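Protein in question filed below.

…
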Amino acid sequence: MDIRTQKTFEALFALEDIREVFRQALPNTTSPEDEQAIREGVDKVRKILDDIQSGTGNAEVRKIAGTIDIRSREENYINIQPIQAAGRLTPEARKALLAYGDGYSTCDACRKPFRLDKISNPPIAPFHEELARFVNMDQARVVPGARRGFQAVASTLVSKGDSVVVSALAHYTEFLAVEEAGGVVKEIPLNEKNLVTPDAVAEKIEAVKQETGKLPVLVMIDHFDYQYANEHDVKGIAKVAHQYDIPFLYNGAYTVGVMPVDGKNIGADFVVGSGHKSMASPAPSGVLATTDEWAPKIFRTTQMVGDITKRKFGIKEVEMLGCTLMGSTLIGMMASFPTVRERVNHWDEEVKKSNYFLDGVLNIEGSKVLSEFPRKHTLSKVDTTKSFDTVAQRHKRKGFFLSDELSGKGIIGEFAGATRVWKLNTYGLSWEKIHYLVDTFQDIADKHELQVNRSQLL
């Protein structure tokens, strides 16, 4: 770790120690012992700041609570980890974690009707309204990850034995949501381009009807799948679903928060997004949005009454288990939202950078892009079996040679040891970093005597 990065963490930790003095003291009162601790803490911070400025000093704190390593991947490396890129927190979100880290911090000002989405200070209620507008739906709730959005819809619509149509590239959490509800997944086959087409959806619906004697109760499709990040015709698929009067769930785990999403234009009955995957939010976080038509069912309130106490909690929403995201997870999501709302307007530039980088990889002879190309997304699957894997076959470190080479140049996030088929994501990287990535991959190829056609990269 760069000593300045190390010392920055140490300064933050030292400030937290000073903060703890105030948290333990009486209101607006500090004892002589407190004042001494504050002075010593401030002196410590000053020394650390001097080290940061001069780039000197030694690592004084290597673990948190004695066992947890300091995570400095984003400070010290270019991270191309496929599911991390769009989940990097904004500075505002990191500040929110500091200020709202206490467990129920969002509930300080909770008043009747005692529900998360009704809290006005901090502005959680307005945030829910903004989320709905953001994806052009009528109502929205925050949920602990996209998977809990799938779960809420499935548990509402799916009964034992019901069929749900999903892509052959569907995420495992879609399967689990259907299984938990007692339903059965029916997969839509892919075409030769690894895409799900509206025609294939119609054929699958007909096949399910013929096999079971009834229609599926839900069609659930990823806009960009997690395996190839290919773009599927969700608007056409939604139209087909509605022709059969089947509701359509739009899985925007890789779109909501990075590119514009218009749920009503798509024809979605439900829009699900991932906060920690695509909205610069702490995990676990996500969003479930729906129309006014479906909201009374998806966001139904409890009708149960205690048999002895006669207690009832009618304002609590069953699928949300009353309240969902609390504390710093939610506030971090809210703190990042202004940036997220703006950055979706620059999606074309992100895709342009993705294609530039992959052009550089393709110029290493033998490399392939398995995702549709040119790319329409920043997440991609590549095949370097006939390039970097040929080196791995003769290298003493096998496939880990590439990880070694990359980390030595400050690049991490590729699947360690993978030199055949692997995924990466360039989202959020500057053009300077994109150029550095291309140069580094090609320099590694040169070093190991792979042919590089640099003249082809514009």
